[in-house]
Structures are given as C-alpha cells and as structure tokens.
Amino acid sequence: MLKKSLNILIGFSILLIIWQILVVFGKYNEYFLPSPIKVFFGIIELITDGSLFIHIRISLFRFFVGYILAIFAGITLGLLLGWLTKLWGVIDPIVQFIRPISPIAWFPFIVLWFGIGDLPAIVVIFIASFFPILLSTISAVQKINPIYLKIAKNFGIKQPYVFSKIIFPAAFPYIMIGLHLALGAAWIFLVAGEMVGAQSGLGFLIIDSRNNLRTDLVLAGIIFIGVLGVILDKLIKILENWILKNWGMEPSEKDVL
Amino acid sequence: MFYKLYIKIDKINKIYTDNHSKEVKVIDDFNLDIEKGEFLCILGVSGCGKTTLLNLLAGFEQATTGKIYIDGKEVDGPSPNCIMTFQNFGLLPWRTVQKNVELGLEAKRIDKKKIKEIANQYIEMVGLSKFKKYHPSQLSSGMQQRVAIARALCVEPEVILMDEPLGALDSITRMKMQDEILNIWEKKKNTIIFVTHDIDESVYLADRIVIMTPHFGKIKAIIDVDLPRRRDRTSIEFLKFIDKVFVQLGLNK
Fold first, then answer.
1. Quick check: helix, strand or coil at residue A155?
2. In this predicted model, what pLDDT tens digit does every residue of A60-85 receive, in sequence order?
3. Under an 8 A CB cutoff, do B106 and A153 touch?
4. Is the pLDDT at A253 greater than 70, yes or no?
5. pLDDT, tens digit (0-9, with 9 covering 90-100), for A173-199
6. Residues of chain B falling short of pLDDT 50
7. Nearest to A183 by CA among A60, A100, A99, A97
8. pLDDT for the residue B1
C-alpha cells in the first residue's frame, strides 16, 4: 500500500519534470505545450469559476445514464440469447459485424435521429458499453456448469426461477468482468461523444478551450478526464471484489488501491 | 428384511449414437428389482454404464427401450422424490451452506420460516451448524459432500442416487463419511443406490452389491452382503466378501 503510493508519487514526479524540461528548453510557442504551472492555474481558474464542476456533473450524468441503460439491455438480452442458442447462432454474425464499428461512425445518424444535447452522448456511451456487456453475458450463460441445471430439474425448480436462482447468479461473476470492460470503453467514448454534439461536459470543455486558444485549459480538461477514469475504474474494482467475495469466490486482488 | 418391491428396472436398453453416427450400446437388457429401504451398491470400472444407469433412474435421460418404475409409477423425468448427489457435490458456490440446503425446499410451497427450520434440522444432522454462513469454497471436501447430502435429505426423497459421492475424498475422510451415510440411512430409511468403484466401500455399505461387466452395461453378479451392520473391515467375514467380489471381477490369483 505504502509502496504503491510511493510508486505513484515517483512516476508522476518524473512525468512533471520531463514536462517542465521540455517547456524550459523547447524553442516553440508556449501555445503548443503550456507549462505545468500554467495548467495548474488553469485548473484553479476552472475550479473557482465553478465551470469545472458543472462540466463534470453533466459528463457523469450522461455517462451513467448511457452505461446503466446498456447494463439493463445487455444483461437482459445476453441472458436470453445465451439461453436460446439457436437464435444466437443467427444473431451472432450480425453482432460480429456491428461490434468493431466505432460508435463515432454512427454519429451523423445519431445526430439526425436524436438531435443535439445530452442524447447523442448518451447514445454513444450506450453503444460503446452495450457490446462488451452483451457478449460477456452470453458467454457466461453458455459456460454455466450443466450440473447446476441438472440439480434445478431434480429439485423441481421451474422457470422463471431457473433464471433467477441458477442462471443469473451462476453467470454474474463473469458478467461483472464485462461490466468492468464496458466501463473503460464507455468512458473513452464519452469525451468523443461530447466533442461533436454537445454544448457542455468535459469533451465540450476541451473543444471550447481549443477554439479560444486556451491550451492550458485543454490540458486541464484532459487531466480531469484521466483522474475521473481512474476513480471510476477503482470504484468498479471495489464493487467487483465485493461481489466475488459475496459469491463465495476469492477476489483476484486483495489490495484494490 | 425388506418391506416390498419398490423399484423395478424392466429390460432397459440404452443406445447412444457417437460422432461417427455409430451406435454404442451402454446398457444392455438390464433387469433389476430393488426393495424399499434397501442400500444397493453398483460396483464397476469407469465406463461400465453405471452413471448412465443412475441418470436413467433419476429421469435425466430416457431409455432407448424398456421402462423403470418407482413405487409403481413409470419414471418419465426428474422428480424431487428421487434425488441425485454428485462426486463434485454440485453445490452452488454463490450460496452459503444454509442457502444451499434450502434450495430444494424453495421449489415447494412452504413459507420461509418453515424452510429455514427444516434446513437447520438437516444441517444439524450432518454436523455443520457452526458453518451455516460459510460458502462452499471455505469448506473441506468432506464438509461439502455433507452439505450436498443435507440438501438431498431435506426434500425427504424416497430414493437417493449417489454417483461416486466419496470419490473426491481422501481415504480417512471417506471412511468417516461412510459411517455418517449409514447413520443417516438407519435414521431415515431412504432407499439408497450408491455407485462406486471401491470394493471395500461397497462391502462396507451395501445390503446387495450389483457387479457390472466392464462394458455394455450388463450385470455380472449380485452379491448379498448378509453381515450384521457396523461391519468390521478387518474381520475374516468381511474379507470373505471382499474375496467374493474379487472372484467376480477376476482379480484374485
């Protein structure tokens, strides 16, 4: 724990020093890479005028709406398609075709269908997180130990209880891995989604600052996206370990921080 | 010694079709009558069809020809009246001991308080009251099998099918568990059909031992083990029965 904090400290100190050296010795306009100090004051400026928190709040709101909708849709469809293997055989090729397409490629249609504002960003996040959740749920259902289903039959457990008592809980730890993957993917596309269609949020902050030639604020925005990404990842890791523990499995890592 | 004819296995044949669409006979013209409250061991090498036979009795699979009757009713699917236990216990890892035992009761229309009461009674019977809140992964294999047995018992099945239930245990734990199974059987008087490949185990537990041929799922011999209960594994009489089994398996020199 202490060693880990020390590593973080050392790593970021080195990064800051290299950054400062580049700024001091580089012969270029300050605009190309603002100094750490300038970015620091940029952050202070965003905090004191309160705009940072507004952007963060809006970004997180969009993020969670898109992500949670994807969780519901992905798990529900995943449980069904994992169970109905013949139907999945037909749908699988279509999913394999759509999945590698970046959600951003859909943007012209997303704007046509959903207009501007919160919705396009939410839709992009939804698309980005939906596929990892869907696919991990399907494979989790297909990997369920057949003995569990035999036992359910033997004790006379019928639908929908086979789903609620056996299939879902048996699949859940593996679904959780999909939720973790999806969180990372969705966070990456949040910024992209806000850069094109939105008038607020962290992605918009970056584009807006660029338009005003404030590259210090661009960097401040980038830093906050990174920090929030790390926090979200840690939070879901804690949730994942808590679930694994309550599911009678050993957490993969004991020290989550 | 027994009350009446209870299970009738009537000219069972089971044929599987393998990957090359060749037909493989796993059970061949199998006939057996089992009486209520009997402890029957089915002894044979791996691949002799003994697990298939249990699957047919449990209703997980259907015979190609022939019929099985339990208490006069034809077996046409799985039923809580005939519970199977497995070598790897088949516990649900996300449920605690308590919740695992309650699983079978949840399918019945009983209220939660009653479910808990019944489950507690059987957890106590297998001596795991202190471990109710543990998950299976926190228990030893012997304890896990006791949870599985408690879970099977608490729906009060007439028949318990045990598929090498002690196969995953070390030999000392195994002997202790054999005694515990006998204790429970003496108390509950279920009909137990116990599949094993351990000769000593079958002579220690069984009223009758059905010895299978190595292939084709046929009965090689049936041995009545008419020794008084709490058999002494080192007594001459016990060893005589071991020898009888050896003869049938072609192992004695």
1. coil
2. 999 999 999 999 999 999 999 999 99
3. no
4. no
5. 889 999 999 999 899 998 888 887 778
6. 1-2
7. A60
8. 45
pLDDT score at A250: 62
Q: What is the pLDDT of residues A119-135, one digit of tens each?
A: 889 999 999 999 999 99
Dihedral (CA of B235, B241, B247, B250) sign: negative
Report residue A215 as tokens: 């590259």
Give the domain ranges of chain B: 1-81+158-253, 91-156
DSSP string, A8-69: HHHHHHHHHHHHHHHHHH--S-TTTS--HHHHHHHHHHHHHTSHHHHHHHHHHHHHHHHHHH
Domain B1-81+158-253 part of CATH 1.10.260.40: no
Query: Using the beta-carbon criterion (under 8 Å), do B83 and A155 form an inter-chain contact?
Result: yes
d(CA B105, CA A207): 61
**Which alpha helices (DSSP H) does chain A contain, by range?**
2-25, 36-48, 51-83, 85-98, 107-114, 118-142, 146-154, 161, 168-197, 202-211, 215-246
Prediction ipTM score? 0.87
For the full predicted model, state whether its pTM sits above 0.80.
yes
Of A154, A166, A172, the CB nearest to B84: A154
Ramachandran area for residue A79 (φ above 0: left; ψ -120 to 50: alpha; else beta): alpha
B83 to chain A: which residues are within 8 Å by CB? Answer: 154-155
Based on the number of CB atoms within 10 Å of its own CB, is A151 exposed (0-12), middle (13-18) or buried (19 or more)?
buried
Omega cis (within 30) before A100: no
Determine the Cα–Cα distance for residues B251 and B253; give it in Å rounded to an integer: 7
**Interface probe with A: pick from B52, B76, B92, B108, most Cβ of A within 10 Å:** B92
